[in-house]
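Mods, move this if it's the wrong board.
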Amino acid sequence: MRSRTLMRSENQETPLSTESHGDATQSLFEKDHAERAWSNHTSKKKTGACPNGVWLTHQEQGASEAWSNNWDGNFHQECGANEALVAFRSKHDNRKEDRRWKIICKPIIGEGASLSSCSWDATWSAWDGTWTRPGATDRIITGMTSEHNNRKEDRKFKFRSCQVDGVTVDTGEDDPSYKNNWDGQLNDKVAQDQFYTRVSSTHDNRKEDRRFKFRRVKFCMVPTDCGMSEWGEWGPCDGETQTRERTIETDPKHGGTQCGETEESQDCTTTTEKQVKAQSAEDSADRAAIPSLFVVTLLKAFLL
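Not the wrong board. Structure tokens:
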């Protein structure tokens, strides 16, 4: 229990997506609107730094799961509660002109952090198009669903994303180039303190395949300051001091303000009592001095 002593005085927004349908691209107005929407959506939480140095993390990837779909087959995979998608695996077959997929989900790690307001994209990505999904950059991707079309030899996609509570958003980074070659394997994962927030893809009608790249974002844990109760009443005066206590209601986390003292004491002697004690001490001193004066007087008389 921590204590201190006092000297007593005499008075006490909606996610968007950008994509092109083949050669038909978005209008400049639509692009500008989307960019401003993303900026407004993320500016409330973006910090660009993590003063306390405590990042949201996730469990490391384990062994690869089984493929989520058969060739030309649909698939749907959704992470569990408070889990994030942390790895994409895919392989292509030139004869079937399709990809098989597996995605890996792992629990997030951060005291006080949680995922909420999860939702799927409202619309599918474009056939044969170039697209980026989801629109918001501060929501973690937590699921993917896809359907294949044999005539188009392409897949359309939707992604599930969730809001992250208890964090601020650090500046993310976009992959400068695609992570797989045409007809090549995709084997990508995020660092343990990073999360996917966007997927970008482009299609080639001659190769009948897709390439993919991602946006990776770090989330800084919000500091939690210590929370303490109000001071209780002063206890009875025990001789010359009295004490009072308070309790810790919320422990500090992630670099938050530390807790103060839980007990303090103060002098409880009143002014009158102090005066009486002082006078008593003075009288005692005077009485102790009387024998000494008597001896001195006798010595003086004898010497004379």
